[in-house]
Amino acid sequence: MKESWTLSVPEALNRLRQEKINLLDVRSRQEFEQTHLPEAFCIPLDELPQRLSELDPAEKILIYCHRGIRSAHAVSFLREQGFLHAYHIEGGLTQITHFLSEHNA
After folding, report:
1. What average pLDDT does this structure show over 23-50?
2. Where are the alpha helices (DSSP H) in the chain?
């Protein structure tokens, strides 16, 4: 069963188009510098606990990584810290890229 804070790629892209939502990349800085989604900002997963003050728990946050594993850890951690509007993209950047190439988006 999919957790309520896990979004499929189509769900995530729809939210990005329709809502004000922050896009957080939790991959390493090197991965982020190689490629990232437009308007995303980077806080690597291992730095997230020390950098919580950079995030607003009242704002919506959509989290991604390479395949969805690190973002799943990040969303779980953030929700434990009171970030009730945090979500992650199932399958990460790999699934996003695959979806966009299939749908010519």
Report:
1. 97
2. 9-18, 29-34, 69-80, 92-102
